Amino acid sequence: ESLESVLENVEGRISVGYPAGGEEIENLIVQSQDVVGNKLLRLKSFKKVRQLYLVSNLETLSEGLLDGLDDLQTLYISKCTALNCIERGFFKNKSNLKKLSITNSKLQLQPG
């Protein structure tokens, strides 16, 4: 799968410059105004991403969305106003993740 097709699926158009293949990108901003499903959001081509800033209308953060992003240290999720669920296993194998920020969502956390 080419990086161009990944970016087309993420945002609908290519609007940024990037190195060939995208394997060297460490900081990535993904923005989409459309309601997209996790299956359309393909991030695994960006294997060396350390900081991911996600602005999207996802309703659910599904297990597998972050697969392949083993170096991810910081995850910012902002303006995901439709977000109401984080599936069990979403953070699986993310031992390097040190910072997490989720703002402007419909998440309702239960004690426990």
TrEMBL record:
Do you know which SUPFAM superfamilies this protein is assigned to? Answer: L domain-like
Which InterPro entries does the UniProt entry name for this protein? Answer: LRR_dom_sf (IPR032675)
The molecule here is called Uncharacterized protein
Name the species this protein comes from.
Photinus pyralis
